[in-house]
Amino acid sequence: MEGKSPDRDSLESGTKKSSISSGGRSQDRKEFFRRFVDSDLLTEKLTDWFENNVEDNMLPTFDVPFELVDLQKFDYALEGVPFQQLIRMPSAIYASTSGTVEATAYLALEDFMHASASSLWESFWGQENEPMPFYVSSLYNANLRFYQAEKAIAKGKLGGLCATAIMLKNPRHPQGKWDDILELALLRPDIGTLASVENDCKPSLPIIGEALFFALRVLLARSLSRSSIPLSSVFVLVVDCQYGGVIKVEGDLSKLEFDVNNVYECSAAWIRNYSRIAISPIDMIWNKLGNANWGDIGALQVLFATFHSITQYAGMPKNSVEDLAADHSSRLQARRIERQLGETRVNGNGLFRFQQRSASPEIVEVQEESVIESDKLMKLEVGSVLWLEDSVWQNGYKINEVLNDGEIPYYMASSVEDPRKNLFLYIGSHPSQLEPAWEDMKLWYQVQRQTKVLSVMKQKGLSSKYIPQLSASGRIIHPGQCRRPSSGGNCDHPWCGTPVLVTSPVGTTVADMVRMGKFGLDETIRCCHDCLSALSTAALGGIRHGDIRPENVICVTSGVRQPYYVLIGWGHAILEDRDRPAMNLHFSSTSALQEGKLCSASDSESLVYMLYFSSGGDLPVLDSVEGALQWRETAWSRRLIQQKLGDISAVLKAFADYVDSLCGTPYPMDYEIWLRRLKRHIHEEDNGKEVDTSS
């Protein structure tokens, strides 16, 4: 930002130290905000830190704000959402010295942001005939005030425009205030230059520094006001006439030292030590005609940032991403019918489609253009050795058994370095498979998402014998020479970059125990205790499981004096409010089916259903959410669940009654009292051994 505030010189003078009173602290914050006006000074303070965060390939090591699978799901959800930018983005905005080109660019950017916010609001949140509560305005550099671009241009202030913002309508302050900002966009000339060099390139230091300045100023403004927009995070878009990306900034402002004599050093220290910064790759947003490529990755990640910005103000939408994305399968089937493809099926690896023609019973195999040759498909059999690499080491794993949870395969394996210890090995989808079947999202939850959840647990110090341990995670080392580009990414081998997760311990699932008739009375009580202990440990970190079912509980018997149960399958765990649990008509909680969310007792409710069905409870035929909810209401009201579990143990019946009383309420689970009660009813073969209830 090049312009200077009129009182810049006066801001350099010293002031009295802040008062220890709350009023003094508030005044210091206001003074701090008033002095925080120069992005160049902040960028200068961050130069060394930024350079230390640069790897040898000259790319910053920041996380990305959105996972590819989330963008894909969002893309499915937007299939029926109309977007229309009416003012075209001019080509080569800074190649001309004409102010008309630059003026059109700001008008086009405002129109793009208006079209984005308007369509997202109407599709996800809006009621019929309800006006959008946002508007778009541009920021003038010299006084850091807001003007709509058209008015600023008419007043001759084009050269001083430095940002464009989506803002909350504020009748008391129609000109706009900083705490009304939902999202900011910086229109700068050098974004596309970077993108043309490397597809995965990030913005330069001056751009990142300027984005951090604006983001922190928005967070400061929100902290000073009673804004209806939470403090949590700020998204800043960085764009030029063709390319753009997203920078996300979040952090705890209570850890910012408000030293009004050292504004920029304090701000830089907070960014270095307490902020969380995520930066997306730069990608194309507008084509050469100035039209936005709404369905491409560049525009999609910008739209997703706008979606999250609106969510901060409006809360979760009435039409969730998951609900709208789920319609993709029905639209796909309708398209097949429209094209008269007849009955189509996809085989196990999803690479070939088979067509049943009415004129002949012959099954015809049709190979698609993007299909990988069948001899290159991954085939892991007993005795195969798979090599895994992470950031620091490599290790081999020998496949000892091929397993299946009823939906997708996984493996029992052992490390070549320690062949005596069995481990569970999960293989995810190849990252280049951008168009998997909707059902194949399970692979991503099983591997990438579960790896994240187990890593978060490890970082938070949440450890329990009843929760799986993350033994290793990384990528497959494929046979032959890897021609991976030096800038990152994967080579053209079909295995390159495929993610792998390795966990311990191993055991037999409750589903298999039920089929073999080995899930008896004692096992039911011990299973309830051990799963409840796992949930108690996770709850200490604010984590909920979200997918309790017989396939996600294993009984560990090898190498232990007493068998115990481990709650596995944490891929659908709830880490934050925007996460959604798995949907299972038989085992999901009432809250999950009704609202797509979990209450404090939801996991325990799912545990009760699992114990009920696994102990011989009648398994109803359920084909809809409405039917599943009706069955739950009937079963609880007639006390069918309590009666069945009461046949096993009075403590299980009492536990079911307790869970029933908590369902749908905000009251927390009292894990400790039920762990103690269940422990007293566990029959130990070794009287000297005590059951571990620690978390």
UniProtKB/TrEMBL annotation:
Keywords in alphabetical order: Kinase, Transferase
A GO term, aspect molecular function: kinase activity
InterPro entries attached to this UniProt entry: Kinase-like_dom_sf
Biased composition (Basic and acidic residues): 1-15
Comp. bias regions, Low complexity: 16-25
Keyword Transferase: yes
Region of interest (Disordered), residue spans: 1-28
Claim: Metal-binding is one of the keywords in the record: no
Top-level taxon: Eukaryota
The protein, known as: Protein kinase superfamily protein
UniProt organism field: Forsythia ovata
